[in-house]
Amino acid sequence: MTNSIPSDLVNRSQQLLTEAIVLADAWRHAGRWMDAQTLLIGMEPVAHDIGPAGMSRHALTVGRLLTDYATFGGADTLAERDAALATALPYAEQTDDDALLGAIWDAKGMSLHTAYLDTGRTAEPADELPAFERSLAYRQQANDQAGIAESLFHVGLVYGVIRDDHKRALPYFQQSYALAQAIEDDIIASYAIRHIGFAHYANGDVAAARANVAESLHLREAAGFIPGVAMALGLASASC
Predict the structure, then answer these.
(1) Per-residue pLDDT at 106
(2) Is 149 inside a domain boundary?
(3) Considering the domain boundaries, does residue 108 fall inside one?
(4) Which residues span the domain enclosing 30?
(5) Looking at the 3D structure of the chain, how many domains does it have?
(6) How far is CA 116 from CA 11, 106, 212, 220, 233, in A?
(7) How much of the chain, in percent, has pLDDT values that exceed 90?
(8) Residue 138 half-sphere exposure, CB side, CA atoms within 13 Å?
(9) Tens-place pLDDT, residues 51-100
C-alpha cells in the first residue's frame, strides 16, 4: 500500500491510473467495451499500489463500464458490475472523498435502473431512488458540478421512467440540462434534453419532443457518444 511504496512511484501510479480511466471512459462512450475492460484489467496492480483511493476509482470505472455494456450492448453484466461497485464503496469510505462517494452511489443506482429495464420493468427497485439522492447529496457537498448534473438527471429518471410522473421529473431534467450546458458536458446534456422531450411528448407537444430528440442526437454526435447516437437515431426514426 502507499506506506510501503516510494512517494514518487505512488505519484506516477496515480497519473497512470488517471490517464487510463480517462481513456477507458472515452472507449466506453465509443462502444469499445472490451478494449476498455482489457485496459482496466491491466491497471488493477497500479490501482492496488495507490491504495484505497486507487482501488475505489478503478472498481468504480469497471462498474460504470459494465453498466453501459449492459445498457447499450445487451450484455449480462449484473453480477460483475455489482461486485465491482461493492468493492469500490468500502475503499471510498476510507478516503473521505465526497465526490468519489457520490459517483459510486450514482453508479449503484444506475446498476439497479439498468436491471429494472432488463427485467421487464416489473417493480421499482427499492434502493434506486435513495442511491441517487445520496449521490446528489455527496456531490453537492463536494461542489462536483458534473456529478450534480448527472445525479439530478438520474433522480428524474426514477420519477419519469419508473413512476411515469413527468411533471415531477421535468424540473430535475431541466436543472440537469442547464448545469450540463453551463459546464459543456454534452453527454449529460444529451440525456437530459432527451428526457425533457419525453416529458413534452407525454404532455402532447410532439413538435417540442422531436426538437429535443434532435438536439440530443446532435449533442451525442458532437461528443462521439456512439452507442447513444445509435439509440437516438432509433428513437428519431420511430417518432417520424
Answers:
(1) 99
(2) yes
(3) yes
(4) 1-119
(5) 2
(6) 40, 15, 25, 24, 23
(7) 90
(8) 22
(9) 999 999 999 999 999 999 999 999 999 999 999 999 999 999 999 999 99
Q: Which of 108, 122, 36 is nearest to 78 (CA)?
A: 108
Residues 161 and 231 in one domain: yes
CA atoms within 13 A on the CB side of 54: 23
Q: How far apart are CA 229 and CA 240, in angstroms?
A: 16
Angstrom distance (rounded) from CA 186 to CA 33: 20
| Grid cell for residue 2 | 502507499
3-state secondary structure of 5: coil
Looking at the fold, whether 108 and 75 belong to one and the same domain comes out as yes
Length of the chain counted residue by residue: 240
Whether residues 173 and 240 fall in one domain: yes
Calculate the average pLDDT of the chain: 94
Question: Do 213 and 173 fall into the same domain?
Answer: yes
0.90 surpassed by pTM: yes
Helix (H) or strand (E) holding 163: none
Residue 6: its pLDDT value, please?
Answer: 76
Residues 114 and 171 in one domain: no
